[in-house]
Specification:
The complex is a heterotrimer of chains A (98), B (500) and C (497). Chain A is of the alpha+beta class and 98 residues long. Helices cover 33% and strands 9% of the residues of chain A. Classes of the chains: A alpha+beta (98), B alpha+beta (500), C alpha/beta (497). Strand 1 of chain A pairs parallel with strand 2 of chain B. The complex binds magnesium ion (MG) and zinc ion (ZN).
């Protein structure tokens, strides 16, 4: 496995929405390189014909009836909001639309 | 919008073959959201239909709505899809303020329905098969209102306000395989497909699928490939095209735009674009410096869905009569030729006619009004036939008045006009405008006598046996009574008086 | 009154029920103890004095009305600050949630309240449960009551330390890779990770959804069992909750008999990196089980050597997604919103300021493991390892009733020793992680002090999924035999605070 570069860390930070400081980039690049080097051992099994387990339980089809349950009051919903206006969450300007 | 001169549609088609992919999102009409028990009722006050789960509060967890799954399977079956024996939800990771968890719970490589098709009928009656790649379950986002700035739109806004009532409402995303071979008719196929899909969804009763209310939204992916070439070109993705007509216009515009770029020696960039109703154009969305990487992985807070074959077959057996089958049956019942039926379909008149017949009118009468006066009006005003300000019951009442001899055709037309103009029920219009047919002999008799007196030459011819000349005298009677006379009765009276 | 803080939960409940002491007196005694020692220990992030006394009064009122009280009514408890509590701050040890007051109770919180348990407050933890030392809390480290300069384990170090410092007879932890068992081991207390899916995760702020499991922490095996019964059971609000009866853990804890049981010693949990005194106490425990009438065999689980790398791919991957919701829009910290910055910039600045280094490290590690091009090699392979580990467990449990191992390779290490060496820190969870990956049940209980440092050593017992009762049967028997040998519970040897 290739080592992880400062640029890759910067890319990961952007994907993760973390405004890392310059010195953090260096520090994390170093540490992530060591950790990824160590965990890359799992790829030993990559070629094996083994089904993946995403979940430890053999459960399927857990569903609920389509019945309305009480919602929070808007006061409760907005109680933790950093800013609110007209019973809505107020957030800084949103760039672009997906 | 910058003015650019586009390659004409015909020129574009001379060198290129359009390849389309349509992604339609349908909001299900379930009582509650996909993963929590909050109501989905439209029009509620902001943030009154939210809970820890749909607000993405720390610690909250999703539980799947059984009717959401059932609806997805029914849509899949109606689209001739295979239904997965086992499938999962996945997380689609990206940040956006209207998405409370900053991932969308969706399905990725294991959709609940896949490999289907939908046959759609074009305006000339030709049937085109659109192949379906998949139909999968996911959840809707919240709604943002942009405040400040000149336009009230996202660009230039100072800040935004978020309402999460819509967040978590179940969505079914239906994705076609690449639609090839439609040639110049690609935009028409796109519109016909969305129209047919909408009808199918409504027939299943899983959603009202109102595009104007955002219950059904379409993304149009389009690319051009040089005629005779195998490989597809780069596609553009025009997002949220929200009316049937716009779907067609957006596809058409993109064909021309792509051809224009290519003709200039440019290359098409893969990007999302926004459609503008005002002029039918599209513009580029925000260019992202890095490619999207959604980092899909199986949703660990939910367990797999494994619909039993018994359940799937039960749902299949209980499907309602699907639109294409139904149309065939109605055509037979109404005794229409293919061409006449196509006219009914193109005008969007099936439901209005059906409801008018249900309200007591004969099918041919109902068809006459909806395809005649009303379709013309819809066309002129650019509105849907079903949205005209007259109800099928009102049309049926007009038909009844004609059948009873209380109105003739010309008067009936005026009554329809009156209803459309908001003058009330048909009977109120008749009374208000004084439109009842004049058929009592004393009132009519005076008009007949006057007509004979005013036209002695014509009267003489009739007396001499030239009965066919009676039309001129009837015309005079009608004119004198401002069209309210019962023409048949007037003719009888004239012939009686002239001893013919 | 100081006696009250040394009562076990079972004794406290009996005394309250019999009217020998009021629930308010019990609560007050513990609040006083917290007041006296917690400045040194820092086990609590928030003490809910008013709420605790109110809950205690309610228990006393019910008793006065002649109502039957449950087996834990009036017993104080320290709740890990990762469960939501309506009206009471919940921070997960993070700055990003500083001041957040949830509008809802976790299912576990509600069940505790229904059982008449008196919640004293919220305990310190590694930020978002990421860590093995509680040093990653944004609110300062917790000290190990055995030696305040050492770590109390993590992430649930606050809960374990609260027990060892007699600030509460019961506590709740969460175990994603060992966060209940490892703190239990290094503080000389009992900690149980129930079968995945048996305790509701609704209201448990997620670190790694497929691994997280809430569970009981106590000073005795019986107390842990009583708490286990109170919090376990099906919850329709958690799709991964098992809809089956909870095994009879209280009954099992009272059996104190392992005759006829087959016990497997996992060969892979020994060797390099294991402290001599830890292995000595472990070997003695195995010998003790033989003396008590169990049959002991050695078993091999070869895939366990890949458990740690698999865990450090799966847990960060899920965490990177679970923690995306902390974006400064709806709750919690918001930094840099000066009217000129976009939502995107404010989110990135807030996350930069609000998350500590270990959380950032894991978010980026998880983002890396899930990103296109790397998914198959990392996340995909880790999931295959998970299958192999489950198969190893299945094979082992075909021949034995439970498995045993040291809970952790070493005793409590000094605060700061591994703080900037993630790989060294991660080794603390070497023996505990396989059970999280497979979803089975496991317990740690004290089995003595390591001779070289006089610090507690934990014995880990592992049972198949939904056979949690076996943990209590073995644990109860070992605890009784050891207490008899020592003449008192191990915790009595801890220095006074
Ligand atoms: Mg989608
Ligand atoms: Zn909700």
């Amino acid at each position: 496995m290739p080592g992880i570069t400062r640029e890759e860390v910067a890319h990961l930070a952007r994907l993760s929405r973390l405004e890392l400081q310059a010195e953090e980039l260096d520090h994390f690049a170093e540490q992530l390189d060591v950790i990824i080097g160590a965990v890359a051992r799992v790829s030993e099994v990559a070629g094996q014909d083994v089904p993946p387990t995403s979940h430890p339980l053999p459960l399927t089809n857990v569903m609920r009836a389509d019945e309305v349950r009480p919602s929070l009051t808007p006061e409760q919903a907005l109680s933790g909001a950093p800013a609110g206006e007209e019973q809505r969450f107020r957030v800084p300007q949103i760039l672009g639309e997906d | 919008m910058s003015v650019i001169s586009l390659v004409s549609y015909e020129d574009a088609l001379a060198s290129y073959d359009p390849v389309m992919g349509l992604e339609v999102h349908v909001e299900l009409g379930t009582r509650t959201k996909m993963f929590c028990g909050c109501s989905t009722e439209l029009g509620a006050e902001p943030n009154t239909q939210t809970c820890p789960t749909c607000l993405g509060l720390p610690g909250s967890l999703p539980v799947v709505n059984a009717v959401g799954v059932e609806s997805a399977i029914r849509i899949g079956l109606a689209l001739n899809c295979e239904i997965a024996e086992w499938c999962r939800f996945a997380r689609k990771n990206y940040f956006y303020p209207d998405m409370p968890k900053n991932f969308q719970t969706s399905q990725y490589d294991e959709p609940i329905a896949f490999n289907g098709y939908l046959d759609v009928q074009l305006e000339d009656g030709e049937v085109f098969r659109v192949e379906i790649e998949r139909a999968h379950m996911e959840e809707d986002t919240g709604k943002s209102t942009h405040v400040g700035g000149a336009t009230g739109r996202i660009h230039g806004a100072e800040y935004s306000l978020l309402d999460y009532n819509r967040a978590g409402i179940p969505l079914i995303e239906i994705v076609t395989k690449p639609i090839v071979g439609a040639g110049a008719r690609a935009p028409e196929v796109a519109k016909a497909y969305v129209t047919e899909l909408r009808e199918l969804i409504r027939t299943l009763g899983v959603s009202e699928a109102r595009m104007d209310k955002g219950q059904m939204r379409c993304d149009v992916n389009l690319s051009l490939r040089p005629i005779g070439r195998e490989k597809f070109g780069t596609r553009s993705e025009t997002k949220n095209v929200n009316s049937l007509r716009s779907v067609e216009r957006a596809a058409r515009f993109e064909v021309q735009r792509h051809a224009t770029v290519l003709a200039d020696g440019g290359t098409i960039v893969q990007e999302t674009r926004h459609f503008h109703e005002e002029d039918g154009s599209t513009t580029s969305g925000r260019i992202k410096e890095e490619a999207e990487d959604y980092r899909y992985f199986p949703e660990p807070d939910l367990v797999p869905i494994a619909p039993s074959r018994e359940w799937v077959e039960e749902l299949r057996a209980a499907l309602p009569e699907l639109p294409r089958v139904r149309r065939g049956r109605l055509q037979a019942e109404w005794g229409l030729s293919d061409k006449d039926m196509q006219a009914v379909l193109n005008a969007g008149a099936v439901e209005p006619i059906l409801e008018t017949v249900a309200a007591g009118a004969p099918a041919d009468q109902a068809r006459k009004w909806w395809l005649g006066e009303l379709a013309r009006r819809a066309n002129e005003t650019g509105t849907e036939l079903a949205d005209q300000p007259i109800t099928p019951a009102q049309v049926a009442r007009v038909c009844a008045l004609v059948a009873e001899g209380k109105l003739n055709d010309k008067l009936a037309r005026q009554v329809i006009e009156g209803v459309l103009a908001g003058e009330g029920e048909p009977d109120e219009v008749v009374a208000g405008r004084g439109l009842a047919v004049v058929s009592d002999d004393s009132a009519l008799g005076a008009a007949v006598d006057q007509a004979i007196a005013d036209n002695p030459d014509v009267a003489a011819k009739i007396r001499d046996g030239k009965v066919q000349a009676v039309g001129a005298l009837v015309g005079a009677v009608m004119k004198a009574t401002r069209g309210q006379a019962d023409a048949a009765r007037a003719k009888d009276l004239i012939l009686e008086r002239l001893g013919a | 009154m100081t006696e009250l803080i040394k009562y076990t939960a079972a004794q406290t409940a009996a005394a309250v029920s019999a009217g020998e002491v009021s629930a308010v007196e019990v609560a007050q005694a513990h609040l006083d103890r917290i007041e006296a020692v917690d400045k040194k220990v820092n086990a609590f992030l928030h003490v809910d004095t008013e709420g605790a006394l109110k809950a205690a009064r309610a228990v006393d009122d019910r008793r006065a009305r002649g109502e039957e009280l449950g087996p834990l009514a009036g017993v104080p408890l320290a709740l890990k600050d990762v469960f939501t509590t309506k009206g009471v701050p919940t921070t997960c040890g993070s700055k990003i949630l500083e001041g957040w007051i949830p509008p809802y109770d976790a299912t576990l919180t509600a069940r505790l309240k229904d059982a008449g348990v008196v919640i004293l407050g919220k305990t310190n933890m590694d930020e978002f449960a990421m860590g093995s030392s509680t040093e990653n809390s944004a609110y300062g480290p917790t000290g190990n009551p055995w030696d305040l300069s050492r770590i109390p384990g993590g992430s649930g170090g606050g809960s374990a330390a609260a027990l060892a410092a007699y600030e509460a007879p019961l506590a709740i932890g969460t175990d994603t890779g060992g966060s209940i068992r490892q703190p239990g081991a290094v503080t000389g207390t009992v900690g149980v990770k129930p079968t995945y899916g048996s305790v509701s995760r609704f209201g448990l702020v997620a670190f790694s959804s497929s691994l997280d499991q809430g569970g009981p922490c106590a000073r005795t095996v019986l107390d842990a069992a009583l708490l286990h019964e109170a919090i376990a059971g099906h919850d329709p609000l958690d799709s991964t909750s098992i809809d089956a009866p909870v095994p009879a853990v209280v009954e099992a804890a009272r059996m104190r008999d392992v005759r006829g049981m087959r016990i497997g010693v996992v060969k892979e949990f020994a060797g390099e990196g294991y402290q001599a005194g830890v292995m000595q106490r472990f070997d003695e425990s195995v010998e003790l089980l033989r003396e008590l009438g169990a049959e002991v065999v050695e078993v091999s689980c070869p895939s366990f050597t890949l458990a740690l790398p698999a865990y450090y791919l799966i847990a960060p991957s899920e965490a990177s997604s679970n923690l995306a919701r902390f974006d400064a829009m709806r709750y919690g910290l918001r930094v840099g919103d000066d009217g000129s910055r976009s939502a995107e910039e404010v989110t990135a600045l807030t996350r930069e300021a609000g998350f500590g280094p270990e959380v950032k490290r894991r978010i980026m590690l998880g983002t890396y493991a899930l990103s296109s091009g790397y998914y198959d090699a990392y996340y995909g392979s880790a999931q295959k390892v998970r299958t192999l580990i489950s198969r190893d467990f299945d094979a082992a449990f075909a021949g034995v009733d439970v498995l045993v191992s040291p809970t952790t390779p070493t005793t409590a290490f000094p605060i700061g020793e591994r703080a900037d060496d993630p790989m060294a820190m991660y080794l603390a969870d070497l023996c505990t992680i396989p059970s999280n990956l497979a979803g089975n049940a496991a317990m740690s209980l004290p089995c003595g002090l390591a001779p070289e440092d006089n610090l507690p050593v934990g014995l880990q017992i592992i049972a198949p999924a939904m056979a949690d009762d076996r943990l209590y049967r073995v644990g109860g028997a070992v605890e009784a035999a050891l207490n008899e040998k020592w003449g008192h519970p191990l915790l009595e040897e801890a220095p006074a605070l």
